[in-house]
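fwd from M.: "can u put these together and see what the complex looks like"

so here's what she sent:
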Amino acid sequence: MTTTPELQDWESQSYKYGFVSEVESDTIPPGLNEDVVRTISAKKGEPEWLTEWRLKAYRNWLTMREPEWQNVHYPKIDFQAISYYSAPKNTPKYESIDEVDPELLRTYERLGIPLEEQKRLAGVAVDAVFDSVSVATTFKKELAAAGVIFCSISEAAREHPELLKKYLGTVVPYNDNYYAALNSAVFTDGSFVFVPKGVACPMELSTYFRINAQATGQFERTLIIAEEKASVSYLEGCTAPMRDENQLHAAVVELVALDDAKIKYSTIQNWYPGDREGKGGIFNFVTKRGLCKGKRSHISWTQVETGSAITWKYPSCVLQGDDSVGEFYSVALSKGRQQIDSGTKMVHIGKNTRSNVVSKGISAQEGNNTYRGLVKIMRGAENARNYTQCDSMLMGNRCGAHTFPYIENANPTANVEHEATTSKVGEDQLFYLQQRGLNEEQAVSMIVNGFCREVFRELPMEFAVEATKLLEISLEGSVG
Amino acid sequence: MKGATETPQHTASTLVELVERGGAAIEGDAPSWLRDARAMAIERAAAIGLPAKTDEEWRYTDPKPLLEGQFSLPRPGAHEGDDPCEHMEIESAARIVFIDGRLAPEHCRLSGLPSGVEVSLVGTGEEADVEERLAPIVAQGIGGARDGLEALGAGLITGGVFVRVDAGVTLEKPIVVVFRAEDGSPVLSAPHITLIVGEGARASVIEDHQGSAGATGLTLGRSEVRVAKGAHAEHAMLQRESPGRHHVSTLRLIQDAESHFHSDRVLLGGAVTRNNIHATLQGESCEAVFNGLYTPEERQHHDSHIRVEHMAPGCNSRQYYRGILADRSRAVFTGRIYVKDVAQQTDAIQSNSNLLLSDAAHAVAKPQLEIYADDVRCTHGATSGQLDADAAFYLRARGVPERVAKLLLLQAFAGENIDRIENEALRTTVHALADDRLGAALERNT
């Protein structure tokens, strides 16, 4: 396949979302120490316990070693060269969208998410994170009427400290891993969602993340809580402007589902992947974990990963409550010099817990795509069930597709199945479609779309459209 | 190795101490190439370090009992006395017996080999000129070791066999090598097998590791197999060591174009067992099958680590590993298919299934793919669970008593891999051993 023009490469195609918008930022100088942690906390007007929690995380981080087991390679990160706080200047909380800096609005428009329109669109509330501070939140009132809290995590620290204190760090502790510890010390923003008992969130919640100021790592912290019988669907999508310097992004996402609660978390990740030589691009090192705390609770992760120089994350489920369900659906595309080491962990603790994992990896050019997953059946997890399927598709012989699953079973009544295949776009499939009148590009596009269908159909409608489009754009110039 | 002087190496020590003392501490009257190999192995182990539980490759198997147990190398000289071995009813081309790491010459049969077939003894003081051919293979094994334990296994060599079959020669019957551990001091034996099969030739070797009930100690085994163009080689290992003895063995395979290789490994005994396979399919259009069965029980630990590297186009590899776990046993399967960018048209399958008979048994599977070529067909599957209740019900509905039904299902599960064993006599032996074992395990676990 290496010689066929439709699969040659995408180098002519520049990053569609690459631009830097000129908004003045309030940025603290690069470097990390206890004072920086305190400064961030003070700028956020946080309660003392949170400052202390950050410091505890920071001190712990100092004692930890950078992990080396991952199947991604990058130059050593100089944590002292990063600026840990960057907020668009003068950010009052706007009541009306008209008050927002027009430069900022133009940025959103170029990103394809005009807030004006969003308001009228199918009931999607947008908490737009511009760099690290929320500047506009829509649909707040409607959500408030339903009793749903949807705000930035900084706002939650000020207005709902009791909730934050109760749940923050309960799923991903401050000392969980190197990057989670770093995040706990310096997180600047992210979303907070609380859906009270019995409430089905009236709309899909969505946050657009965007990294903007140069050389500022972004450390969001997202916490979603669904109380008994509550349900919520959360959408996360991101694009980032073009630049030469590698940028670290180390977010933490925590989900808590109580009895009969349901949380659906969808991600489209399309950050700047770096240029054809692998220069620049985002390092996306994220800790995402959901705790199915209650009986019959349900957490579902869906991700479409097409961006970033390096994507390294394992959205996971801890199935603690009896009869709880965890799901993971993923499409990951690596091309150019992109590297992906992603997958999921399903930890079965409760009885009759079930998990389902579907992972689709596509590797092209010199991209490397690794699925790494853990299915752990604890001794008490009677009748636990897991089904894992990870399929890889390769285009060309300079890319790589790797599968490293870990399956640990300590209960004889549990059933664990893992299947994986690796293949290329079949010559016979291509031939068949071309023979039906499609050109080669359309044919490949259709095959790739079919390959990913199982995952796309798990996405909320708007996202499914966007994901299909994104994949098409990513394969543009070569495969329609 | 002749003469019975007690050198420090023959007093008990741990592998950690052995490595700390360094290669120079190895003395004795072994031939110089062997002393060099041992020193090299120890130096290499010191350089790359002995494994620790924090290593990814040892995550599920604690190497401590292997490294910190007190073992002594076999005393020099040959074994004299009876042959206590459990011999299979097998027609063999040659039979070599080691007891407690020492050659038992009276019980060996080496005569009557067809021309073009060489079977030489190694490390027994009786070898003739085998060193020239063996030393580079040993050095390669030590150099390519991925951890210190593997390096020691590749170079300590307390005894072994060198088999070479010339181009075009077919050796119909297998060469059987028996390693037996008897009661007494915990012996560290490092058996070394080399099988070199020339172009278009055909040969097979069967290793039978066994022990009396009370034997302790450690086996650090190494098998080096080289299969030339168009050749056909088989290697089988039956590990039925005593439950108190640890067993680590590594099979290193290199295949040339259009060759065929078949491996059978049956793990029944041992306390902590580590079964390593490192296969390199170097030439085009090779075929390789890795068939394995493990049935740990009580507190046994069976760990298999298989790496199959596809380095050339058009090769075909199969990994079939199955386990039945009883009592408080643990099993680990780590398999990796590696496909180099040039290895187009690779067809590789890896499959691992575990049956857990007890609440306290624990199975871990890490079936891995690492692929850099696009025109390949690589699949892996892993399952873990218990006996199929529907199948058992079906049998019971047909009037089969529950226990018999379950045993039948277990036999069928294990049978799929036992039936794949190439040598018929070995197949029959394993069937009988497995039936006894599974029947007893079922009694205890229901």
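replying to her w this: Chain A has a mean pLDDT of 81.
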